Amino acid sequence: MLVFDHVTKRFGANTAIDDVSLTIRPGVITAVIGPNGAGKSTLVNMAAGSFRTTSGRILLDDVALQDLPKYKIARAGLSRTYQNIRLFDGLTVLQNLEVALVPRSLPRLIMQAFGLSPGSSEAEARSDCETVLQRLGIAHLGERHAGSLAYGQQKLVELARAIVARPRAILLDEPAAGLNHGETDELKAHIQALRSPDLAIVLIEHDMKLIMSVSDEIYVMARGAVLAHGTPEAIRGNRQVQEAYLGQPGAMGTIEAAARGRRNRIRVRAGEGLAWGQP
Asked: Which residue has the higher pLDDT, 188 or 261?
């Protein structure tokens, strides 16, 4: 279980996160949505160690993450993807995944160096990586350099790297950003397949169609605070959410109807010229 316990984050005089409490349960997919600037990415960055909390706690089961360096947070069992892809372009796909397993493999390698442990950790790591790539349908790309892949393939490699170390919690930061309709459908299937009683999943995303179809529960944020929490059905019909997030009551249905009527998929990015006075 991943818990944000009365978390606040201030940047100087600006309060980006204001006394937010969230509980991300294992076995379900929990989405966090809201207009641009609502604080979603700040939450992810605090959990992953990129930002320090001003106050409050972030707990992964019984481990407090808020004061740990990034590598200890990763070792505690939290992994993430990025809105802007961060692969090692000069390494192969398999090597990108093997990097994520170094903390797990290092103690065994040291023991082997002193003749204290039989077996090949390198072979086991390679096997684990190949299994994950097969699971995501990209095993044929294993020996390709990550920088040579198409954008949608790179997104899948980043997802593979996030799950190969068998995390206890995973933060997916806008995984569908930049994907076309077919790639988004493929991603949706992979995210649904991640459901496990041992894994807490956080999905940060602007694609409302994906959110409503894949999430089990949703937190809506606005101006650094939690505006609403509930099932996709409850959030869809919440008047306050519609007014704050989409601009006016009934906007969700109007936008979805317009999207179905167009040949190309429309991506809704909340907060752009709607109720928040942003350009």
From this structure: 188
